[in-house]
């Protein structure tokens, strides 16, 4: 609590009493703390790829004796690091827009099968060291959702599964109609599609599981420290899922794998309309 005391005087400047202003600064202090934390994380995480980009371009510019192979290798690193920076900046912008409440969903009937096909093509190069198993019995009922946002959520979950599981292991993507016993007790009622991304990776301790959906939360261990990231992917995913009315949750056993699940409402056609994506 912040307490301010001011003497009060009458027109002759005689002391008449004291005015006490008591204000609760907890929220302000919490917001200052978040801002400091934000600047700390961002400056560190942005600096790492930038340092490497500057280092490698300097070598490429100054060393004429480099063979073609090494040049390619260095350029590949520059390109990967630039992509990492791009993704981080995009995540930061997404968070600030989501928190400001200015993100509007462009919702329609979306076929999940097509979304999955596009995503697997997009993630093709990252997926070459894993076995991706898709369990989706067609025809899938369409969901009432923003297509790009749905792609972004599944993309985040698949990238994490790739990032936090060993080469050669299996990643399973399941899409099906949710049964009542699939859903957490607090889930809103209705007709839902369930999307699950399961990996055989490092897993997450029970005490860390819930906070991963908060901003800037990363599990601090030697495995995650080696991987780049600012801890915004799951936070963004949660905000996007909740904007659609759904929920996202995780089940995981440390050392043997994780499965991230989320729900999206099934689209129901208005009596006089056929649901087609524009
Ligand atoms: P980032 O991956 O950028 O750190 P995320 O918000 O996507 O941010 O994830 C937050 C944290 O959750 C990660 O740092 C990691 O510790 C943990 N995590 C996410 N997905 C997985 C997974 N599939 N297996 C194990 N840990 C995970």
From TrEMBL:
Keywords: Kinase, Phosphoprotein, Transferase, Two-component regulatory system. The keyword Protein biosynthesis does not apply. It comes from the Bacteria. GO terms for molecular function: phosphorelay sensor kinase activity. Residues 41-268 form the Histidine kinase domain. This is histidine kinase. It comes from Chloroflexus aurantiacus (strain ATCC 29366 / DSM 635 / J-10-fl).
